[in-house]
Amino acid sequence: MTARVTGDALLFGGDYNPEQWPEPGVWEDDIALMREAGVNTVTLGVFAWAFLEVDDGVWEWDWFDRVIGMLHAAGIGIDLATPTAAPPGWLHRAHPEIIPTDRAGHRFHPGGRLGWCASQPVWHDYSTRIARRLGERYGQHPAVRLWHVGNELGGGNRLCFCAASSAAFREWARRRYDTIDDLNRAWGTAVWGLRYRSFDDVTAPLASESGQNPSLLLAFDRFASDALLDQYRRERDALRTAGVTTPITTNLMPTVGGSVADYADWTAHLDVVAIDHYTQAADPHRERELAFVASRARGWDRTRPWLLMEHAAGAVNWQRRNTPKAPGEMTRHSLQHIAHGADGALFFQWRASASGVEQFHSGMVPHAGADTRQFREVVALGALLGRLGEVAGSLVAPSQTAIVADIPAQWAWEEGQKPLHDHPLERAGRQWHEALSARGLVPDVVPARADLSPYRLIVVPGLYAVSGADAAAIGRAAAAGATVVIGVLSGIVDPENRVRTGGYPGAFRDLLGVVGEELHPLPEGRRVELSSGAVATDWAERLRVAAGSDAAVVATYATGPLAGSPAITRRPVGAGSAWYVSADLADGLDTLADDIVAGAGVAASVPVVPGVEAVRRVSGDRSWLFLVNHTDTDRVVPGVEGTELTTGAAVTGDVPVPAGDVRVVRESGRR
Hints:
The chain is an alpha/beta fold. Helices cover 28% and strands 21% of the residues. It is globular. It starts with 10 loop residues before the first strand and ends with a strand.
């Protein structure tokens, strides 16, 4: 199955919900505005189930046929969704058991979206039936270029604690563990006498009067991820059975930290890796968070482009203060994703809703209509993407640096009682991504089980849970010549959320040649100085070099109760080296990064200009350099030759990048 859906164009458009606009003439106006904006793709049918199957087995297709025909006549391709994000009211009335149950054992009520439990057999029947009927009717329609299973699977129904979920979890546990004794050992059920006599005792972790076993909670997280993946595969297989031959995907929801599912396990089942991403208006450097997430989407599969399925044209409606995007910000965000490997930028949604929960979520066409600053920017973006179509199908140039980020490791930290509650473990990953990006290194963000052989510098920040096999692979990368940096709270527990005894950092202790005796969270507001001049907040560790180890102390704690003990160490490992950073650095990370990058022998792969993000995409002997100016002043990027595609100008050395703008250069002379 080919993963290419874009041809020689970047996808541009968004979710289209014509059922919200039945007034005469609106659909025609929408099509005309789409053509004006250069829209070439819409996602259709996401919430349309109640309008297609108006009662059990009663179908109304005519209106949908008309919309699909109108889009096709206008040359607009369709990403056709199975509408399982929105079970209809008649299904909830007939089968309320499909509605998820919370941790307290209370069933939710109809009225929202994603009102289904992934473990309910009756849900399996109805969801695959609607998928099959859609596939039979539209599977060979020439306008349908991509299929979209559900919507944001688990983005509201990630966990369900009903009886069917307990039964499914029990069977999942039987498959994962050979015997009940194996399960008891893995989960450490001797603590508090929580030993299971048989698999029949295993249930979903409903709320109790006290804290619960973190191993049980992590196991349920893994089960829930697998159950959601199974739901995707059921609907995908129903489409294939119905004759669908075009690519099939669903929209994943990656973040800097954890996510609702372990997407590293999902990507092999997706013909196109597709994500949704929404920035936080309160984040003054949200473009850096965007870069991390885009690097993560790319890192799941470096062999193919991915797709930005949803982002916002302006404000969202679910943050505390829903500030609209500033002029130019929508364009920068779109091009930033494309720079990092996306083959298009789609939005939620085409026309802003007048009613419903998302009535104040922005659309490409805002409430005020087409005669607006926002729609004019949409039109300009469509024209710009049209000029960049030659980039489609290319990949981000191979990187020498990687950051290891694992979703189950984040779950393991979040489940159960910890030395420092609410500590943002993911913060270190973003900080390292920012530091390496600022040095022109364009790091990939990869899961723990990724092939690490292409990388010369590998940063492992906050990999709290890790398997022995993955830890060994990181060690082999160092022995083969890579510089490996292990950050705080890495290797502490095994994949079952059991502490690795014998000293911290557990799985990486031998690689690093150090022994952590005591985890040492710092009081709120406390700052501890290091001998290097760096400053730690939130987290430190009582550490010593292991007896007989050749690890060198790079910096010690200079103040506080750990004064004199090692804070940062480095050990030669084969042809490479392994660093340990035991402190959460509030200041001094840039200096440390300079030292580590220099020692690793990696050099900038793109021009480095403060405030300008540079990323290169390549295909064969062609390359394109994206330059995104995130500042409010004009910048000049030197040393570039080629043709600038947004303006058509020839480039012979310097590229002016206006404040808040983007330039894309088809480079000459690069092979």
